[in-house]
Amino acid sequence: MKFNRSKKIFAHIDCDSFFAECEIFRNPKLKNEYVLVWWDIIIACNYKTKALWIKTGTPVWEAKRILNDKWVFLWVDHEYYTFISDKLMLYLRENTLSLEPFSIDEAFCEITWLAELYKLSLENYVKKLQLDILKIIWVPVSIWVSNTRIKAKIFSKINKPFWVYISLDYEKDKGIFTKLPLSIVPFIWRKTQEKFKYTCNNVYDFIKLWYWKLKEKIWKNATDLRLELVWVNAFVVKKSPNAKSISRWRSFNHHITNNKTFLKTQLMTNFNILYEEFITKDFELKTISIFLRDKSMFTHMFNVNLADYTYIRNDILKVVLFLFESNFDESILYRSTGVVFSNFRSYKPYQTSIFDKPLRDKTNNLQLVKTINTLNQKYGTHKLSFGDELLGKGFGVKVGIRK
Fold first, then answer.
1. 335-350 burial, b if ≥16 CB within 10 A, otherwise e?
2. Residue 86, SS3 per DSSP
3. What's the CATH number where 297 sits?
4. What CA–CA distance (Å, rounded) separates 305 from 173?
5. Which of 2, 127, 129, 298 is 20 to 30 A from 201 via CA?
6. Cβ proximity of 150 and 229 under 8 Å
7. pLDDT digits (tens, 9 = 90+) for 184-223
8. Which residue has the higher pLDDT, 145 or 350?
9. Number of domains in the chain
């Protein structure tokens, strides 16, 4: 079977230390500090910190030991990072031929004839794109360019930060592939690597395998990856559907406890933040879960599948509190709590019957929470929130200003 070599040019754009750089953008005074973003473990850190061999997954206590009190620890803020990511993706969508987001901080973009449009060499065009992103979004990115997406992704392991690398030469690629392990190829997981440990010492060995033998031995996606490595466009980034679940959690490592009131307060804070995000998406849900993570990092997960879809806050809140009251164990010390909403569908107004609550009450409820969300966006995150009687029998809702 004959395959046509790609004539397109793709850029893999990857943010450098994205979470840490977002925090530095928010507070420029942190630029020359050891910046670490954490949640139970180190989630991200800037390159000054990485130079000391601290990386994602490093325990917090170990990072503190290495840095000897010369550090700035910041709690992970997914809402803010998503905001910056959305700005970046919007810019790329408007300034490249196509955009395929790959994660919150990286994407594939087609740039086939854009260098010619700007009357620049490909290298100068890519450097211009890199500098424009830094100037407009204020986040440094590294860019790797090749004729297929997977090749561009593989080259992203070559160097960082603020790096530009272009490879459109097949012979040059072969020389690089002989030095790269098979594990560097996206979607080649450990079990697959085990199957090839005696035949593939590197990426170049993998692309020399016979196409049909490869397809027979493992799965079709592996053959697509091989085609990408020999200049054939065969891989398409799947567009993300609506989220299957959303969650919010809160860790309190400095206060590991079995205090029921404290834990319930933390759980309610998670619930309020999550519900505010959920209601603005015009979803209904059918599955509600909570988790309690104990001192040993074991996660206790509990859930309820409702008889019907709902978006009514009180109904969901009752389930969250029921799950907590039913499963809390005072003999266990807990380090974090969380709430998860899943099993969504788009909200569908329906005709009420004499057995239902009036439709206008449901509509008013939806308008209320959306109004609260709008005010929070204008005056500050979570300034306005629902108030609940945590220890009382009732689940009435009131609105109050959080100081």
1. bbbbbbbbbbeebeee
2. helix
3. 3.30.1490.100
4. 52
5. 2
6. yes
7. 887 777 777 777 777 788 888 887 776 666 655 555 556 6
8. 145
9. 3
Cα-Cα-Cα-Cα dihedral sign, residues 160, 163, 167, 168: positive
Euclidean distance between CA atoms 21 and 15, whole angstroms:
9
Longest dimension (CA), the chain: 75
Which residues share a beta bridge with 340? 247, 289
Distances (CA, A) of 278 to 105, 218, 339, 342: 23, 40, 12, 10
Q: Is residue 112 part of a domain?
A: yes
Cβ distance 55 to 42 under 8 Å?
A: yes
Q: What is the pLDDT confidence band of residue 365, given thresholds at 50, 70 and 90? A: low
> What values do phi and psi take at 282, rounded to 5?
55, 45
Q: In what order do the strands lie in the sheet with 106-110?
A: 98-103, 106-110, 10-15, 141-146, 164-166
The Cα–Cα gap between 156 and 180 comes to: 12
Residues 199 and 305 in one domain: no
> Is the pLDDT reported for residue 172 higher than 80?
no
HEC profile for 55-84?
CCCCEHHHHHHHHCCCCEEEECCHHHHHHH
Whether residue 1 is contained in a domain is answered as no
In the numeric block, the tokens 């180190």 are attached to 42
CA separation for the pair 35, 20 (Å, rounded): 6
User: Using CA atoms, how far apart are residues 165 and 180, in angstroms rounded to an integer?
Assistant: 16
Give SS3 for 92.
helix
pLDDT in tens, 68-105: 878 888 888 877 888 888 889 888 988 898 888 888 88
Lookup result for tokens 């389930």 = 319
Residue 316, both tokens: 């969901």
Amino acid at 369: V
267 with 378, same domain: the answer is: yes
For residue 16, give the nearest of 145, 177, 137, 149 by alpha carbon.
Answer: 137
The pLDDT of residue 351: 45
pLDDT the model gives residue 264: 92
Question: Hey, what amino acid is at 37?
Answer: V
Q: Which of 168, 196, 231 is the last residue of a domain?
A: 168
Residue 155 and residue 12 in contact, taking contact as beta carbons nearer than 8 Å: yes
Q: Which of 112, 142, 168 is the last residue of a domain?
A: 168
Domain hosting 344: range is 245-401
